[in-house]
């Protein structure tokens, strides 16, 4: 592999695409472990999307001769724009700070991969209720990330990469 910064971004976007293809196959599968395969490919796609975003941050940093960052969080820290005006970083910061944007949702989903599962605790409010209560096992769980949403994030990231590369090569 060439030692250019853009190759890592391209590779991660490609790997995310492969994970999404495998996820689609696993969703169609009738195998006993199909649900596990879907979850594994979902996490793999999210991991590679984060890696592609980190690669983009490295590309921007390389163009502006900034110090190398270890993670997206470091690249998009509050002091990321101190001392120098970088329009690409400003746009990434704006996207990351607004909860409803695709980038903020993607970063939140990636962060969720590292959080332990937490059981919901419903405090008992009425002391006159019996100690043993019936439990409904059919309660809906929070919806997992869909393949369509992950694909949408991948396409948005690819578009951002292309646009930033065009702007960076104009100078």
What is the helical fraction, as a range of percent?
55-70%
How many individual helices? 6
| Backbone shape | globular
Arithmetic mean of pLDDT: 87
* Span between termini: 26 Å
Identify low-pLDDT runs.
none
Structurally, the number of domains stands at 1
Q: Which class of secondary structure composition applies to the elements?
A: mainly alpha
Note the main sheet.
none
Number of strands: 0
What series of H and E elements makes up the topology?
HHHHHH
Strand content: under 5%
Gyration radius, in Å = 20 Å
Question: What topology does this entry show?
Answer:
Blueprint: H1 5-28, H2 34-63, H3 72-75, H4 87-97, H5 102-112, H6 147-170
Helix pairs in contact: 1-2, 1-6, 2-5, 2-6, 4-5
Describe it for me?
Helices cover 61% and strands 0% of the residues. With 171 residues, it is mainly α. The protein has one domain. Helix 1 (5-28) runs antiparallel to helix 2 (34-63). The model has no long low-confidence stretch (mean pLDDT 87).
In short:
By secondary structure, this protein is an all-alpha fold.
Search tags:
171 residues; single chain; mainly alpha
């Amino acid at each position: 592999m060439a030692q250019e910064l853009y190759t890592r971004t391209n590779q991660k976007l490609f790997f995310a695409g492969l994970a999404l293809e495998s996820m689609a196959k696993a969703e169609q599968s009738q195998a006993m472990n199909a649900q596990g395969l879907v979850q594994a490919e979902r996490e793999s796609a999210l991991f590679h999307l984060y890696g592609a975003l980190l690669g983009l941050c490295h590309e921007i940093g390389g163009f502006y001769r900034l110090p190398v960052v270890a993670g997206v969080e470091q690249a998009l820290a509050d002091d990321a724009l101190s001392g120098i005006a970088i329009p690409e970083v400003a746009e990434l910061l704006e996207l990351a700070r607004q909860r409803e944007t695709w980038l903020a949702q993607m970063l939140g989903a990636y962060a969720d991969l590292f959080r332990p599962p937490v059981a919901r605790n419903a405090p008992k409010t009425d002391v006159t209720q019996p100690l043993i209560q019936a439990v409904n096992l059919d309660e809906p769980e929070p919806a997992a990330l869909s393949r369509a949403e992950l694909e949408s994030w991948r396409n948005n990231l690819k578009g951002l990469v292309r646009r930033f590369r065009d702007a960076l090569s104009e100078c």
